[in-house]
């Protein structure tokens, strides 16, 4: 039986548990059975050739803009996203509060999905049909928030293992994602979804800070 770790804020804890449970369900029922929950391009044929061969392609559905973020392509994919969610999401939730953090997470998740939907639909027009899964769009939004809220906090890259301030880490990572997306480096990674999560997160933080034409009811000191 899972015991709640009281050192984790509630939203981060819940997201970790739900993602782990969904991944376990994927292993039991098979990824094919979960295909309806992945994010699919618009206007795809009923049957098409994908990276894994000829298969029946589900239609796009609005709920996929949320559900895709709880599916993962493998244990490593899940681990990387959940590790980043724990590492960066914990201080962000403690800064924002659970309600605002949850709103921020899902805005980044849906925003990343919308950007990826456009990119994947364009690729499908060229005969490249593939689903998108993973929480990384929301995680990149959280990473951006960490860089904005704690700009001078030291973080260490995994490779190469060098320390740098969070603001530079976020800028460097964002620039890499843009380069990789434009040049199609590391194909199979949703680089534009990552950028979409960061972009929607940036806009939401500007909104909370009162820097957009539409003002929040309560301005946050972030």
TrEMBL record:
<feature type="transmembrane region" description="Helical">
    <location>
        <begin position="128"/>
        <end position="147"/>
    </location>
</feature>
<protein>
    <recommendedName>
        <fullName>Peptidase S54 rhomboid domain-containing protein</fullName>
    </recommendedName>
</protein>
<dbReference type="GO" id="GO:0016020">
    <property type="term" value="C:membrane"/>
</dbReference>
<feature type="transmembrane region" description="Helical">
    <location>
        <begin position="101"/>
        <end position="122"/>
    </location>
</feature>
<dbReference type="InterPro" id="IPR050925">
    <property type="entry name" value="Rhomboid_protease_S54"/>
</dbReference>
<feature type="transmembrane region" description="Helical">
    <location>
        <begin position="12"/>
        <end position="34"/>
    </location>
</feature>
<dbReference type="Pfam" id="PF01694">
    <property type="entry name" value="Rhomboid"/>
</dbReference>
<dbReference type="InterPro" id="IPR022764">
    <property type="entry name" value="Peptidase_S54_rhomboid_dom"/>
</dbReference>
<keyword id="KW-0472">Membrane</keyword>
<dbReference type="GO" id="GO:0004252">
    <property type="term" value="F:serine-type endopeptidase activity"/>
</dbReference>
<keyword id="KW-0812">Transmembrane</keyword>
<feature type="transmembrane region" description="Helical">
    <location>
        <begin position="192"/>
        <end position="210"/>
    </location>
</feature>
<feature type="domain" description="Peptidase S54 rhomboid">
    <location>
        <begin position="61"/>
        <end position="207"/>
    </location>
</feature>
<keyword id="KW-1133">Transmembrane helix</keyword>
<feature type="transmembrane region" description="Helical">
    <location>
        <begin position="65"/>
        <end position="89"/>
    </location>
</feature>
<dbReference type="InterPro" id="IPR035952">
    <property type="entry name" value="Rhomboid-like_sf"/>
</dbReference>
């Amino acid at each position: 039986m899972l015991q709640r770790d009281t050192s984790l804020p509630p939203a981060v804890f819940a997201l970790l548990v739900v993602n782990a449970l969904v991944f376990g369900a994927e292993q039991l029922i098979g990824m094919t059975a979960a295909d309806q929950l992945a994010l699919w391009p618009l206007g795809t044929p009923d049957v098409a050739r994908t990276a894994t061969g000829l298969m029946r392609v589900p239609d796009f559905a609005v709920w996929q803009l949320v559900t895709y973020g709880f599916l993962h392509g493998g244990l490593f994919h899940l681990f990387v996203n959940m590790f980043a969610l724990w590492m960066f999401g914990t201080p962000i939730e403690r800064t924002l509060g659970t309600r605002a953090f949850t709103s921020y997470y899902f805005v980044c998740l849906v925003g990343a999905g919308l950007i990826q939907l456009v990119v994947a639909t364009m690729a499908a027009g060229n005969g490249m049909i593939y689903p998108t899964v993973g929480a990384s769009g929301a995680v990149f939004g959280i990473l951006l928030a960490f860089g904005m809220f704690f700009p001078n906090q030291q973080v260490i890259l995994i490779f190469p293992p060098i320390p740098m301030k969070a603001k530079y880490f976020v800028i460097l990572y964002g620039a890499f994602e843009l380069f990789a997306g434009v040049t199609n480096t590391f194909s199979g990674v949703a680089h534009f979804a990552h950028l979409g999560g960061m972009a929607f997160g940036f806009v939401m933080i500007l909104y909370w800070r009162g820097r957009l034409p539409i003002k929040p009811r309560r301005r946050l000191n972030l």
